[in-house]
Write a structure and sequence with these properties.
The structure is a single chain. It contains 10 helices and 8 strands. The chain is globular and about 45 Å long. It is 44% helix and 15% strand. The protein is an alpha/beta fold. The chain binds 2-phosphoglycolic acid.
Length: 255
């Protein structure tokens, strides 16, 4: 994975899993491992449920593992019951936030325009926006994959997108939590397209923007699926809930 000029990132998306004790145990195990190994040639981040974010950030304080949120509201504050602002995530210890995950697009009807507004909110708070895009199975079957990715990038990436403030995650919806993965050729094709489109949208800055692959990444497939030149790491769901699995995926990025 080395030699692309972009520092790989392994980001763990814990989704809505685990109680406080589970989060503490997982953060503790990762923190101990990080202290033992020291920072490597790739970055690592974990995105716990919002209610556990502050505690996880405290566990990992001083560690080279970053902490992120899983969503934020576009506004800084106000009458938005149940929502959390980017500023609150930052205050709780987050450095980044996942935005536009397909589960949020499906469960909450999030549109590209909303994802874009949330990305601007993340930047306002000083957070890196991890913007998720990806086609459904029906879209892939009907040959629309690349057009879907273009549309999502165009709609979700705000003006002012830079390598420092944004990470893109390509997550085919049909590969998330299913154990099914695209072929390496399909991953390569999608990521090449994403890089071309990012260049069209944000210019030369696109060369430095990291693009992660996500969807059923596990230790046994990480080296193969993350190998394409334009893949700069992984957004990992299920396999990020076991410290040893997530560490193995991280290791595949630095080997
Ligand atoms: P998965 O989830 O690794 O469990 O497929 C990935 C994601 O949704 O970010």
């Amino acid at each position: 994975m080395a030699g692309k000029g972009r520092r790989p990132l392994a980001a763990g998306n814990w989704k809505m899993n685990g109680q406080a004790a589970d989060a503490a145990a997982l953060a503790g195990a990762l923190g101990d491992w990080a202290a033992d190994t020291g920072p490597g040639a790739a970055d690592m981040a974990v995105c716990p449920p919002t209610v556990q974010l502050a505690a996880v950030a405290q566990h990992l304080a001083g560690s080279w593992i970053a902490v992120g949120g899983q969503d934020c509201h576009p506004a800084e504050m106000g009458a938005h019951t149940g929502d959390v602002s980017a500023e609150m995530l930052k205050d709780a210890g987050a450095a980044m936030v996942i935005l536009g995950h397909s589960e949020r697009r499906a469960d909450h009807g999030e549109t590209d325009a909303e994802v874009r507004a949330k990305a601007q909110a993340a930047w306002r708070a000083g957070l890196v926006a991890i913007i998720c895009i990806g086609e459904s199975e029906a879209q892939r079957d009907s040959g629309e994959t690349l057009a879907v990715l273009s549309g999502q990038l165009e709609g979700s990436l705000p003006d002012g997108t830079t390598a420092a403030n944004t990470v893109v995650a390509y997550e085919p919806v049909w590969a998330i939590g299913t154990g099914r993965t695209p072929t390496v050729e399909q991953v390569d094709e999608a990521h090449k397209h994403i890089r071309v489109e990012m260049t069209r949208l944000v210019g030369r800055e696109a060369a430095g923007i990291r693009a992660l692959y996500g969807g059923s990444v596990k230790p046994s497939n990480a080296a193969e699926i993350l190998a394409p030149e334009d893949v700069d790491g992984a957004l990992v769901g299920g396999a990020s809930l076991q410290a040893s699995d997530f560490q193995a995926i991280y290791q595949a990025l630095v080997d």
